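Hi V.,

You were right to ask for the full record rather than a summary. Here it is.
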Amino acid sequence: MGQKINLITTRMPNHARHSGYDRLIDYIDAQQIISLEDWTFFSRALAKLFKSQIKQSDLQWYHRDNFISEFKAAKRWIAGKHQVFHFLYGENSYRYLGNLKSLNRKNSIIGTYHTPPDRFKEVVRTDKHLYQLDAIITMSRMQNDFFSKYVGQDRTFFIPHGIDVDYFKPAEKVEEKEGPIKCLFVGSHLRDIDTLVDASLLLAQWGEKCEIVAVTSPENKAKIEKSNNITLRTGINDEELLQLYQQSDLLLFPLLAATANNSLLEAMACGLPIVSTDLEGVRDYVNEEAAILVKRKDAKALADAVVQLSEDTKLRVSMGLASREQAMKLSWQSVAKQIHDIYKLVQ
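Predicted structure:
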């Protein structure tokens, strides 16, 4: 009998339709357990019955829909042997299933973890359940030392986040661009809005040679409005986002911390040169041919990189090609193949 794979996931509301780690479910033959959107009488009653367990999970992002997903996984666990249960967002959705290991069903549990260690310790306030995992997949090598204490170094694997390179791609027809260089910033989580604003103010002194569009949360409006050199876009749809990637000259992307980052991968797949913060979690995805990386909170270095790329079209083009080439190595097809190897290992 072949190995049965169960993918337990949730849909992040801030992710574009073609983005997010849950896209893995389109590339792996598996049974899926997806967090509830439509609640039945039974699921509401179940959540109410186990309200105390949900509240006492000590996971900041673990809610009643995550508990219901684990309950469904538990039913499958009891029903069969030699199964793999892969929690795609371990921080959010894995808490209690490991308790069933005493039933000796020869099933295995894998968790993928996305948060940098410092942030992880804030949102996951207990770690006893992590020792029941059979393997951990990380989004950056910088997480490996931290997570290896739970499953061992031989069961802790950095496998990069994937990207849909068929949807996120350069525009088919590239028109010659004139006028100011167009910089794009995308997202809110762990983004360095303050340094973006400072860099934009420095670029404003350069004259009308640079336009910056920031696709971010309305919560950042007050900070963004400190600059007259940034256009704020909120609530855009997927098609508009893709168009912005394809019409921009580079991704201007200061960060506070990072493991994997959807916006970075989307920009790379669309063939944009990257100007970002020098972090381990960024270096795991870009290379020197595709990106200029600067120290954290160094607004001047960010602005200087934009000026450099504006004045060197040949460099900008070569970096864009390298960015797309690097993204192709991170296609979901390639990533899914690596994850399949982990499933075989734990069984």
